[in-house]
Specification:
The complex is a heterodimer of chains A (about 230) and B (about 400). By secondary structure, chain A is α/β, with parallel strands linked by helices. Chain A is about 35% helix and about 30% strand. In chain A, helix 5 runs parallel beside helix 6 (about 175-195). Chain A is globular. By secondary structure, chain B is α+β, with helices and mostly antiparallel strands. Helices cover about 55% and strands about 15% of the residues of chain B. Classes of the chains: A alpha/beta (about 230), B alpha+beta (about 400).
Chain lengths: ~230, ~400
């Protein structure tokens, strides 16, 4: 079943006086339950694509259909509503809030989803246990290793029952062992729980965990193993 | 939009992270609110005290002064010798609504008894003065009309003078020197306290007005007086007494009907009003100054909130990525600013009340904390927080989430 479809997406930025074409005519679709890597050199447009897929940004041209709904022309607040219900983000730099316990960090999307307060703790706990950090719930980010912090971030991305997890270089700040553990976790979430995951990565090793690799250059898709398979 | 209670929790947590900064930011509001509360307390206290003291000066009192009255406010300078001792006697005997009238002619004098030295105002008057002021004697007796006619060298002294010159000694019958003139003390006045203008009323020497003018001060205008103090026969008779005095004096001074009076007649309630309006203006002025400090406190809050928004750009980005709406972010920072200023307001109110008590004890000023000023100060501080928190809050809520997430 199709989860999302990018239809001829284009994005141009005005940088100073120059128009920069970050994406030009990108089209692909993602089926529910896929685990995808997006690869490409920096400046190839993959971050721009991730921002659009994550509803943090809107395309200049083209259509982005998420779960059957065209979200390309929505307002700030409408995009925020899509994000809180359907999207889970995992960032390279973890982006956990300091001075808040792991549990509180994981609970935050539930706050903006207006889940009743008494349901938040059990749901956040469940998400933390899913990533194997049930015993670290009350630790603050600075008391956790990089790998653990990233797993808290993944729990935060899982907790709202999002349709898709978007991970922007999730292993970029991790050593190789933590990276492998994280990719194992992603694989498990994908295979056991059927979560759809799209990650951006530079490393072939990490891309190897995924079932489909989309490569970018100069704002265009140069290869898509999913399409080749078909 | 998430619940306000949740937003408040987030705001307080954020404030607790930077305790010192939050406290210092609040300080501006604390000082402003404290100043407003104290100004109001002192103003209200002064007003009450004025009313009390005027009524202690003797009710039903009317004061006649030389010089034309200048509108509702003050009296023009004493320009003419148009009010005389004879006027006072005439008012006392010819106006039916007047119970007593006493002329007053005053000066300051150095008084000596033994090796004790003291400075006190000397009031030359007639025996009726004590009746006009409802002022009794502690010991001894008053001087008489006969003493006034003969300009006898007698005096009644106030409590303060007695204490300073005589200590525990009984002053009655002793001779003091007023401006080197030997004067016999015949009586000691009962305690009166402070006047409406904060002067110690017990620091006074009463002598026959003739004695004051002929023997103590070399007055060039013998017979003219600085004021005549009048007591009406009842509180309902004030208006009547005022009219009668004016008519009488117009005849005595040969003023044509409709001509300009060369004297002014005012009763106590008018004087209370004048004094109150003076303190009102003072209170208003000081409150304006206090409000400026509230305003500066508000600008301080805005300043810190702007810094805070910049510092927490990434946090804002994260919250936005997790689904916070514009209004959620805006409210978070607005509540933070309002919490700062309201907390400051609360502390300011407590300090203001404490400060008022300290002033009341330390300086002996009357203070009166009105609930109105507390509500006003608190409401104003909350408004300041919301007003000055709005711009930073809007700035935070309009951040681009992508740039905010990238912010280092």
């Amino acid at each position: 079943m199709e989860l999302l479809r990018a239809d001829n997406l284009s994005k141009t930025y005005l940088m100073g006086d120059v128009n920069v074409q970050a994406l030009s005519g990108v089209s692909f679709s993602v089926t529910r339950g896929e685990f995808i890597s997006i690869m490409g050199a920096s400046g190839s447009g993959k971050s721009t694509l991730m921002n659009i897929l994550g509803c943090l940004d809107t395309p200049t041209d083209g259509k982005y259909i998420l779960e059957g709904k065209d979200v390309s022309g929505l307002s700030r607040d409408e995009l925020a509503d899509i994000r809180k219900h359907r999207i889970g983000f995992v960032f390279q730099g973890f982006n956990l809030l300091p001075r808040m316990s792991a549990l509180e960090n994981v609970k935050m999307p539930l706050l903006y989803n207006e889940i009743p307060a008494h349901e938040r703790d059990p749901r956040a706990m469940e998400a933390l246990e899913m990533v194997g950090l049930g015993d670290r719930a009350n630790h603050q980010p600075q008391q956790l290793s990089g790998g653990q912090q990233q797993r808290v971030a993944i729990a935060r991305a899982l907790v709202n029952g999002s349709s898709i997890i978007l991970a922007d270089e999730p292993t970029g700040n991790l050593d190789s062992e933590a990276s492998r553990e994280l990719m194992d976790l992603f694989s498990r979430l994908n295979s056991k729980l059927g979560r759809t995951i799209v990650q951006v990565t530079h490393e072939q090793d990490m891309a190897a965990y995924t079932g489909r690799i989309i490569s970018f250059r100069d704002g265009r898709i140069v290869s898509d193993s999913g399409v080749e398979r078909k | 939009m998430i619940a306000l209670s949740e937003t408040t929790k987030i705001a307080f947590r954020a404030l607790l992270v930077n305790k010192t900064r939050s406290a210092l930011t609040m300080l501006g509001i604390v000082i402003g609110v404290m100043a407003v509360i104290m100004m109001f307390a002192i103003g209200a206290g002064a007003n009450r005290q004025i009313a009390e003291r005027f009524s202690s000066m003797g009710s039903n009192m009317i004061i006649v002064r030389p010089g034309a009255s200048q509108g509702p406010g003050g009296v023009s300078g004493i320009s003419s010798r148009n009010l005389t001792i004879e006027d006072a006697y005439a008012i006392g005997s010819e106006c039916p609504a007047v119970a007593y009238a006493a002329p007053v002619s005053s000066g300051n004098a150095q008084v000596v008894y033994g090796n004790q030295n003291w400075s006190a105002p000397v009031t030359g008057t007639t025996p009726d003065y004590l009746f006009v002021r409802d002022w009794g004697l502690d010991s001894g007796h008053s001087f008489t009309e006969q003493d006034v006619r003969s300009a006898a060298k007698l005096a009644i002294i106030g409590k303060t003078v007695a204490e300073n010159l005589f200590g525990n000694e009984d002053p009655v019958g002793k001779t003091i020197r007023v401006l080197r003139v030997p004067v016999v003390v015949v009586g000691v006045l009962g305690e009166m306290g402070e006047s409406a203008f904060g002067r110690d009323e017990d620091n006074i020497i009463l002598v026959p007005i003739t004695t004051a003018q002929r023997r103590l001060f070399s007055t060039s205008r013998i017979g003219s007086v600085s004021s005549i103090m009048v007591k009406a026969t009842g509180s309902g008779m004030l208006e009547a007494a005022q009219k009668q005095i004016e008519m009488l004096l117009e005849i005595r001074h040969r003023i044509r009907p409709g001509g300009e009076q060369d004297f002014s007649v005012r009763n106590m309630s008018q004087m209370i009003e004048n004094a109150k309006s003076a303190t009102r203006i003072m209170t208003l002025l000081l409150t304006a100054v206090a409000s400026v400090s509230l305003l500066v406190g508000g600008i301080g809050i805005m300043n810190i909130m702007l810094v805070s928004v910049t510092e927490r750009t990434r946090e804002i980005g994260i919250r936005m990525a997790l689904g916070a709406r514009t209004v959620d972010i805006r409210l978070q920072f607005l509540v933070e600013a309002a919490a700062l200023s309201m907390l400051g307001g609360f502390v300011g109110i407590l300090l203001g009340i404490t400060g008022s008590q300290v002033i009341s004890r330390g300086f002996g000023w009357a203070v009166e904390i009105s609930p109105f000023s507390v509500v006003l100060a608190f409401g104003f501080s909350a408004l300041v927080g919301i007003f000055f928190g709005y711009f930073p809050a809007v700035k935070a809520s309009m951040l681009n989430p992508i740039e905010a997430l990238r912010y280092e």
